[in-house]
Amino acid sequence: MTLAKTIGELKQQRYRGASVKDELRANLLRKLRAGERVFPGIVGYDETVVPQIVNAILSRHNLILLGLRGQAKSRIIRQLTNLLDEQIPAIAGSEVNDDPFHPISAYGREMIEKEGDKTPIAWVGRDARFVEKLATPDVTIADIIGDVDPIKAARGGRILSDELTIHYGLLPRANRGIFAINELPDLAGKIQVGLFNIMQEGDVQIKGYPVRLALDVMLVFSANPEDYTARGKIITPLKDRIGAEVTTHYPTDIQLGVEITKQEAWTKREGFDGRLHIPDFIRETIEQIAFEARDDQRIDKRSGVSQRLPITVTESVVSNAERRALLTGEDEIVPRISDVYAAAPSMTGKMELEYEGEQIGAGRIAKDLIKRAAGEIFEGYFVGIDFARAVGWFDAGNNLRLADTASAEECVALLEAVPELLDTALVPFDFDESDKAQTVSACEFVLEGLYAQNKISRNEEGGYTAATKAKKDRRGMIYDDLTETGRYS
Fold first, then answer.
1. d(CA 484, CA 144)
2. Of 219, 247, 275, which residue sits at a domain end?
3. Which of 22, 92, 268, 353 could form a disulfide with 18 if both were Cys (CB 3.0 to 4.6 A apart)?
């Protein structure tokens, strides 16, 4: 159907508009009936967050998403635009997307009074109907609602109290669309009052002049639960008008986290198509690092450990393996535990430390997290498998270092000296010793697992050596063996 260009043509097409909340509801119902995913690409929320958001939209409620950083709050909010119609008609030139049949601005009413059915129509796409603002203490009422524009007044020969002299802010420009505010508690109380007033009463004072705007808008907010009650505050009347409070969360298990990281991490590198293989135990170890960090008392739980941590660590791990392949001329790129250690700088900036953690340092905590994560995943793969002969080899005074720049062939030659390690390390996996790159990765994973169990030690250079009896009897104690650089030669 040809898009109408005037209000007259729109009437001939028997166009019937709907409020934005009714529009969202109708399009959501169509998706649900068709069995479509409401939020494609959002993993782990199908049984928790998504049903609550669906209920809020079906109820025509404004909503707020509460959650720590890195829980896909902003992504969910932006995907709400997929529930809007592809295009809607608005009076051409209107700053507030005036409905051709129910204009709310003086400009829209004046255009219809002058032009009647010849009033020109513009078609507004769904992306143009989404307005997002990050709340910061410097946000003003003018930013949100609007302000008097003296230049408009001078050019039009109008007095300042004339509505046509107003430069509209973000909220009126979101009319007939979605208005989102991220980190709502950071918004100053007086701005929240103005926001509530225009939501509830449809009017506001701009520079002392009352303006009435019957806005049609879906309001969506996000906030950190800690900020919600401590650093900032949402005024009670505004909080009372938010229909649904939906709490987001981090992945509940390793496999969900791995799925999210697989989806989000940039691992498809140009020129390496088909040559990169990330073993499952490496992916799971990286994901376990985030789980360990979220439970660690030395890391601030109020700040949270973002899902971006395993995503960026995965990217750095792949990059280190890619660098090794370029240095050694190898065709296959297979990350190892040593690459995870090399990715520590991708971890340290994503952890807010408590006092104890600050005394230890982010770098040492990152190494401890890698150790604990590898140990947890190692136990899942090698439960009941005995590495006594390999441990005995280290106890006899031998040591081994697999440099992260050494080729797979060089590493295999070193690993062959450790009794039964090569054969036993491959037991849980579906590849054989002929795949040298994966074999090295598996063996290093085993060595890290034995280190996590304090059966062997690891020094700062990445060399594995014997563990002293004191350390073997001290499960969970850390740091001392990280500084023993003299044990490896």
1. 58
2. 247
3. 22
